Amino acid sequence: MSNPAIEALFARFGPRYRYYVSFTAMLGTMSMVLTATMINVAIPVIMGAFGVGQDTVHWLSTGFIAAMTVSMLLNDWFVRAFGMKTTYIGAMTVFIFGAVMGGLSNSIDMMILARILQGSGAGVVQPLSMILMFQVFPVEQRGRAMGMFGVGIIVAPALGPTFGGVLLDAFNWHYVFFMSAPVAVVGIMLATVFMPSGQRQRPLPAFDWTGLVLVTLFIGGTLIGLSTGQREGWGELIVAILFSVAIISGATFIYWELRTDNPILQLRVFFNRKFAAAVMIGMVLSVGLFGSTYIIPLFVQTIQGYSPTRSGLLMIPGGLLMMAMFPIAGRLSDRLPGYQMILFGLAVFGLSCVLMMQAHTDTPFWIFASWIMLGRIGLAAMMPTLTVSAVSTLKPELLSQGSGALNFTRQLGGAVGVNILALTLGQRTAFFSDAFAGLQTPDNSATLHLMSQFGHILGQLGWPLEMMRAGTLYLVGRSVYSQAEMMAFGDAFLGMALLYFVTMIPALFLIDRRNRTRKQPVLRPRPG
Fold it and tell me: What digits encode the pLDDT tens for the residues 18-76?
């Protein structure tokens, strides 16, 4: 799996080179994936600063993941055309530019554009890092390598809200963007020493621009259609047009990729049973990872009144536990059947979502943190095993396309998952608000008692009678809305739990039938 450039670097730095270059790759991956979720704790503040609702602000997360999803498909061409080192440094430069632009943004549109630029750089670096680590580690150590790689992919999103919360409370939301730039600069400096350069192809290799346009239309039409439907109404003409564009471009993309000589996404890898099952599980894994890191900080800030720092600290125990679990999970993935660890991970994360359905305004910090930790154990068990199970079934010449397809679908699952979770929160909050509002009648003793309590408090504060009545009604309305929001979050956690439990079915397709059907030797009596 080596190439001359990598062999030359091994000769120069010795066996430890694989760890030097792995750290360089992980540094870039961690800085970029950290940024994917660090913004989540700042969402309530940004909503207030720019006067926008959740139907717009969720694009700070969705836009980043969607751009990362599309740009992953460019990785293979960039590496073949310019080499690993140039591709890595170029992608990191785009990422840094987006970080600075985001920190200097004076409008929500400019900020979303900055997040899209950051996602474009992040999407190129992630599969490059995975391919590089597969090339420098021998086959028997790939599980351990994926355990190391998982530190950047999974632990960084878990710790992102913590760093974001500290920066937000200590400074302001601008520094949430600025923080990732210095880490990326260090990554560029290390890449100039440890990244293999490779030979640039002249002329440039052919590229599937048609496929890129079609998949961009498919993803953009789907995500914008979901967002617009929530905001404008599902019966509007523009929503029908967006979904029509998504369906037509998606079907055309599949047809084109199966016929073109230079596909941007090699769809034939999905004909492999185990690979297709691993891809489906990877999409669900990303829904849980990115979805939970999106809605948990939102829940504790809006329902429990946490500060950004406290909401970030809530994620720390789970992140630290994942960091400890990944090396163990990587070693186990080299020894145990992959489907067993994946089934375990799906069940454990689903159980954690069931527990988080019970969260309310008075849920203690450490109870909530323990639920998150349980879910992170499940994710840590799945990630190294899933990658090895998927890629190890492919032929060597399909490794690059296979890893690109795996990362593409995984990030697509995250983008769609965050979008649907934001949609679910909005719709279920409206549903419960209407239901609870209909119960607020003069015959409702609980409502009358609550109004009496609010009126007594406002009266003690010296409010005039008319203002006291208006204030009481407002506080009752806010209480009803907060209860509706809490119920909506419960439905969102329930949806994730059901998704993980149902995904245990395709996980069974990862069972290696050849090992199960080995014939036992037949014992025959010796002739006497």
Answer: 778 878 888 887 777 777 778 888 888 888 888 887 778 888 888 888 898 888 888 87
- Asked whether 127 and 403 are in contact (CB, 8 A), the reply is yes
Residue 115 tokens read as 């997040």
pLDDT beyond 80 at 522: no
Structure tokens at 262: 């230079």
By C-alpha distance, which of 79, 99, 101 is closest to 89? Answer: 79
In sequence order, the 6+-apart residues with CB closer than 8 A to the CB of 253 are 211, 214, 215, 218
Angle value at C-alpha 57, between 234 and 176, nearest 5 degrees:
160
- Is 158 in contact with 376 (CB distance < 8 Å)? yes
CA angle 77, 82, 86 (to 5 degrees): 115
- Give the residue carrying structure tokens 């991956």: 29
Amino acid identity at 220:
G
Is there a contact between 499 and 345 (Cβ–Cβ < 8 Å)? no
Tokens of 10: 């091994």
Residue that is written with structure tokens 């504790």 in the block: 300
Does 384 sit behind a cis peptide bond, omega within 30 degrees of 0 on the bond before it? no
Of the candidates 136, 130, 134, the one whose C-alpha atom is nearest the C-alpha of residue 15 is 136
Place of tokens 């290799």: 205
Tell me the CA distances in angstroms from 207 to 82, 210, 212, 260, 432, one per residue in order: 13, 9, 9, 11, 50
Q: What is the largest CA-CA distance in the chain?
A: 111
- Spatial separation of the C-alpha atoms in residues 179 and 34, rounded to whole Å: 10
Of 14-28, 93-107, 116-130, 138-152, where does mean pLDDT reach its minimum?
138-152
Q: Which of 126, 145, 148 is nearest to 136 (CA)?
A: 145
What is the distance between the alpha carbons of residues 308 and 298, in angstroms, rounded to a whole number?
9
Q: What is the CA radius of gyration of the chain?
A: 25
| Torsion angle (degrees, nearest 10) of CA 148, 76, 418, 365 | 10
The type of residue at 334 is: D
3-state secondary structure 363-417: CCHHHHHHHHHHHHHHHHHHHHHHHHHHHCCCCHHHHHHHHHHHHHHHHHHHHHH
Q: What are phi and psi of 444, to 5 degrees?
A: -85, 105
Alpha-carbon gap, residue 412 to 425, rounded angstroms: 20
For tokens 């960091």, what's the residue?
323
User: What token pair was written down for 501?
Assistant: 């439990």
